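FAQ: What does the model actually see?

It sees only this:
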Amino acid sequence: MKNSFKLFTFVFLLISSFSFVSCEDDDSESVMSDKTITGIAASNPDFSTLVLALKRAGLDDELANPASDFTVFAPTNAAFSALLAELKVASLNDIPVETLTKVLLYHVKSGKSTAMQITSGYYSSLASGPAEGSKLSLYVDMTATKINGRSKITQTDVMADNGVIHVIDKVLLPMSIADHAVANTSFSSLVAALSKASLVPALDDDTKTYTVFAPTNDAFAALLKALGATLNDLSSATLSPILLYHVVNGYVPSTVVAAGYVPTLSTAFGKTVSLQLSVSGGVKLNNTVNVIATDVVGTNGIVHVIDKVLLPPTVVEMAQQNSIFSTLVLAVIKADLVGTLSGAGPFTVFAPTNDAFAALFNSLGVSGIDALSKEALTPILLAHVVSGNVQSGSLTSGSVPTLNSKKSLNVIVSSNGVTIDGSVNVTKADVQGNNGVVHVINKVIVP
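And it is asked to produce this:
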């Protein structure tokens, strides 16, 4: 009985050993025949840490999906070791799964892009951004063969059945708005200006979300040439309001940009200075600055690239930048009031539109601004200007003196809005400038 048991045990172990060897061979053949991205990574010992990370994040099956195409920037084992040292952690297990998943997805873009198909520029990864549906951006510099100014591409075009792998020497980390500026040498002047104004920490803050209109080095060079200065000549106090004028609260992708005025982070008299957006024939800011690249997504917002540095405008410049005030601008020039209204102020300007002036000319029986003398225009225009920076929330019903000493405005504030002299309506309020605020009105005020 004992001998029979020993014989049975020997036969069982022998069969088991053959089965085990057979399974091992099957598994080996399976890995070798798996030409998906996951399969290729699993067959290369230099990607063993990457494979462990993909499994821990539950992404191994996704990158093994033959029905999808991906481009993967794959960090080596050495890259992961360097990351752990950088993060001061012992192993991948010390990184929360949610964080690890986001980092791994940041190495993947949709579609199959070989090295020949990748040009220098921004690409959307599969990692989620700060707004619903948004994806974090990667910056690829093919001249330097670097990604985000951090990772060197050491090998390209490892072809898979469901995409392509490019090997990199460092693990990519999702970048904030500030990080994106640092990563792209085209923004080195912007980074220097932000550093001098001590604004880098604000744009690196992941607790808030911003939209930034980022001027290139060429944009800064043009500004400094016009000023006859260098960046070193500009103080932090000078730079700060200029730079903050390029920043809007919240996440505004190009798909939802709409014409109108938006408040920026720059302030004057405790109020946020307004930025004008127009969308006809491409997005323009203040009617003079072009948006030349859009939707660079960081962990705390989105960047749009512009070709000029924005300067917070005076009330005169705001009128000049908006075509609906072209007649008002001509009138201000003819009355020789540009210098006055470009001063320190502050001023509150009730600005009539072109249609308002057309109605005035019609009532006077004249053809246009040329029919009115400087002496006739000056008291009319001064009747539209109040001393102080008075936004709509501070307006109260009553008599308000103007810069025309002979004319006060009869202001009525009600639930229906603001009315002046019984028939003039404020149609758009609180367009804040650097030296005052503009309220748009539908009729010319006549003293």
